[in-house]
Amino acid sequence: MPENLQIKTARGVKIFYCEVHPDEQKKKGILIISHGYGEHSGYYRELMQFLANHGYGSYALDHCGHGLSEEERGYLERFELFVEDLDQFVDYVRMKHPQLPISMYGHSMGGLIAFHYGIQFPEKLQGQIFTGPAIGRPVGTALIPGFLFEILNKYFHRYKIYQVLSHRATRNLEVRKKSNEDPLVLKYATIGFFYEFVYRGVNEAIKKAEQYRLPCLFLHGKADRIIPYQSTPFIFKKISSRDKELKLYEGLYHELIQEPERDMVLGDILNWLEKRVK
Q: Phi/psi of residue 58, each to 5°?
């Protein structure tokens, strides 16, 4: 079972994480997991155990303000803090496994964070996997003009928006129930948080997309009701990676690794990793 551990960032914030590993002699590589908005590392325990069963170690952190990590919940001073924390975490993992190839998995908002990371620090990773990445505006926000984001952030910066996304995230009723009952799941975020994530984070990613060059796998469900799947082929065409793959799944919702067809998705993730182990 994963064990909850922690590191302290340069700004003094405790970031919690968990890790799962196969037997040391069987270990082929490491996957670092960047979770989505409102989630925490515990969402990925089945994925981590699946990877361990096939020879891969994995680390999943709780982003600041999420899960067990420190910082004010539902608030974000600036989007770049996510990337800075992730970089320190990657350096920590690389120090522990200097001889192993390290890749990254990012889901939804965690995919957006990972995408920014891949642009800034490509030399630290072998490649990246994205599921339902928020490299595009979430459902219901695409038509909000930039000036309105600016006004809302200026005058309602700390106003809280409460959301329940579980019913739109997956068709898996058991996962929905667990999510609704999970005390670590973030139930709200401020206007300021969404300004940094949905407006600044997404816009900067689109502007810089052509700078992205890492080997990558993009996966998205065509029935996604949180991040429109069309944003992924759009960004896929813009990136400059020579080694890139895109797969869209008919009928699947946002949380691909929780869907009833998750075995197919996990198989695609594993196949991509296996082809790139050196």
A: -145, 150
Q: Coil, strand or helix: which one is 182?
A: coil
CATH superfamily membership of 5-276: Alpha/Beta hydrolase fold, catalytic domain (3.40.50.1820)
Tell me the one-letter amino acid at 142: A
Specify whether the CB–CB gap between 58 and 32 falls below 8 A: yes
**Helices 80-96 & 109-120, crossing angle to 10 degrees?**
70
Name beta bridge partners: 56: 29
Q: Whose CA is closest to 163, among 191, 143, 135?
A: 191
Note down pLDDT in tens along the chain; length 278 residues: 445 699 999 999 999 999 999 988 789 999 999 999 999 999 999 999 999 999 999 999 999 999 999 999 999 999 999 999 999 999 999 999 999 999 999 999 999 999 999 999 999 999 999 999 999 998 888 778 889 999 999 999 999 998 766 688 999 999 999 999 999 999 999 999 999 999 999 999 999 999 999 999 999 999 999 999 999 999 999 999 999 999 999 999 999 999 999 999 999 999 999 998 76
The domains of the chain are located at 5-276
Distance separating alpha carbons of residues 27 and 110, to the nearest angstrom: 25
Question: What's the rounded Cα separation, in Å, for the pair 46 and 81?
Answer: 28
Tokens coding 199: 């407006």
